[in-house]
Amino acid sequence: MNARFAAILVVMLAVLGGGALLVYQQRHAREPSNVGMLGQRLLKGLAAPDIAAIRIAEPKSIITLEHRGKDWVIDERGGFPADFDKVRAFVLEALELKVGQSEPIGAQDRARLHLLEPDKGDGAGTLVEFRAADGKPLARLLIGKKYFKQAPADPATAAADGRFVLRPADPGTVFVVSDPLAQASARSAAWIDKSGISAQKVKTLEVRLAAEAPWKIQRASANAAWTLVGAHAGEKVEVTKANAASYSLSLLELADVAPPGTSAQSAGFDKPTATIDATIFDGLSYEFTVGRLDGANYYLRFTRQGDSDNKKDAARLARERALEPYTLLVAKTELDDTLKKRSELLEKKN
């Protein structure tokens, strides 16, 4: 090999090496900056058995879910039962959050993505804090705007592909997670156990509406026809409407529960929309007071007298007994069939 050929070979190797280096650098530049974190748990060290409470704070509301005995309850609603399945699912979601994409972020972008603390005004997000039995925080997560792979027509109602989140201990880094975290809400309605009252197999039903004539229907057995108490000549109750009026009370789901201290006046119980008395064939009796309409929901209170020997009813009756001290909210649609005027129950004359 002469000296000229050796020199040419050295130059070629240098060029090839430089090209390889350039290709490597370009490929490396296209890799996510957090390639070493991809797939790692976002809330490292958080374990389900250690979680005794979950505090969720939004700009205008706070809710605290507490583990008491075997149950989860809502502290701001006087210990009202939370839906265990919803709490369990949310905890599992939090534990399974994985790092997808992460980028450095400044204060201005944090506000744009709603990743400021809930008390910071415009640009505030939702702060979720998992606490131990002694009240100390185990993990904290700020949840911001929805993340979409493609821009939706209406971001407010569209199903998200993920969420922008931030760990308050590391305010300079924003993460994208693939879970939209829809359950992260400080609304009590999102967390309550909505199973409500079940006055099954109604025997008598009496409804007294404000500024309307009261009415009462009854039947001799669960399969007998309904009759209108005090019916005038030619009046006959329409069977389908009577069935609907009574059946509504057998599946009365809850929409929400009012905060402790809600006054009778603010709930409309001092001037009720209606009162409902129902007796059922196993000897139980229910009295409902329907307060004012608040948006799509009525305020509601109820009491139950008597008890049942049917062991199959034990869990349901215990649940109802636990609801009695609370001011409940029930969707208007749940009571529409029961709160009919007397004239609306009658068969139409040809």
**Count of alpha/pi helices:** 8
What's the SSE pattern? HEEEEHEHEEEEEEEHEHEEEHEHH
Give the total of domains.
Answer: 2
Q: Strands across the major sheet, in which order?
A: 4-3-2-1-6-7-8-9-5
Radius of gyration, in angstroms, nearest whole number: 31 Å
| Secondary structure: number of strands | 17
Q: Ends: how far apart? A: 117 Å
Poorly predicted ranges (pLDDT <50, ≥5 residues)? Answer: 5-32
Classify the secondary structure makeup into a structural class: alpha+beta
Helix content: 10-25%
Strand content: 25-35%
Globular, elongated, flat, extended or rod-shaped: what is the shape?
elongated
User: How confident is the prediction overall: mean pLDDT?
Assistant: 89
Characterize the structure shown:
- With 350 residues, the chain is an alpha+beta fold.
- The protein folds into 2 domains: 48-185; 202-345, no CATH class.
- The protein contains 8 helices and 17 strands.
- The protein has helices at residues 3-30, 84-96, 107-112, 239-247, 264-267, 314-323, 332-335, 342-345; strands at 53-58, 61-68, 71-74, 80-81, 101-104, 126-131, 137-147, 162-166, 173-177, 202-209, 215-218, 227-228, 256-257, 274-280, 285-294, 297-305, 328-331.
- Strands 4-3-2-1-6-7-8-9-5 form a 9-stranded antiparallel beta sheet, with no helix packed on it. The protein has an 8-stranded antiparallel beta sheet with strand order 12-11-10-14-15-16-17-13.
- It starts with a helix and ends in a 5-residue tail after the last helix.
- The model is unreliable at 5-32 (pLDDT under 50).
